[in-house]
Amino acid sequence: MRILAAAAVLSLLGAATACSTEAEMKAVDPSSSGDSAATATTGEAPTPVPDGEVRTSGLVTVLDSGGGPEMCLGAVAESYPPQCGGPALADFDWGDVGSEEAGGVTWGQYALTGTYDGTTFTVTDAIPAALYDVMKQPGAGGLDPACDVATTTDPEKATPEDMDATLAAASALPTYASSWLSNGTISVAVTGDAEAAESTLRETWGGLLCVTVVEKSDADLNEVNQELQAALGDQLLTSGSSAPDSLDAQVVYDDGSIQEWADATYGDGLVRISSSLVPAS
Predict the structure, then answer these.
(1) How far apart are CA 280 and CA 198, in angstroms?
(2) Residue 261's closest CA among 43, 73, 88?
(3) β-strand partners of 187
(4) In terms of pTM, does the model score above 0.85?
């Protein structure tokens, strides 16, 4: 069962959680196998390397557990001390502020600039979090309801228990793709007969409901995600779905060639690539 959050939170590789309340709904990375075939790949994924200085797209964790400092671009385990890994750092100095030590581990958050050869990031500038001027970014927008005007059939049949039963019924539909909550509305995406799906869901839900038709089922996206993980390997930091008919994937570095490969392999717009390292100027 893959439920997309109203906040459209991107899940990390291997995540598998879903809750039924609107505040707790989180996008689930589709990591289980599916039966629907994805588009066959058209060639090996490129491994671009920047030819000039690059910078991190914000603060990242730098961690040294004894083997030298590493730049953690992906997930960071929320332990104490934290655990993470990534490209090795050269010419890095912890500085006078920003780092912590515990259990033989040193770590801190930094905005880094330097050169990257595909294995090692050679630092030319490191700004610790305490000195980093973070520009306020707009909050991530949530998914809108799947229809312009959601309808209600029985306001008394719209309890949290009814919602749980309806989401379970949605995930059991043979054409189920995804579901999400927004503005008190349950939206369900299916790959088949929307009217039949809505009729089934109305057996348990009388509140605001939208049913829409999409191209890719949950199983389709599962298979594409598995192929993506195998094709990109260590280049891939996170992947998951935050909207129907799409996967979001963050890689260490993309000069546009990985996005071109993804479009050619899976169709334009199905996989959206973002780069953790970006040009410094």
Answers:
(1) 50
(2) 43
(3) 180, 210
(4) no
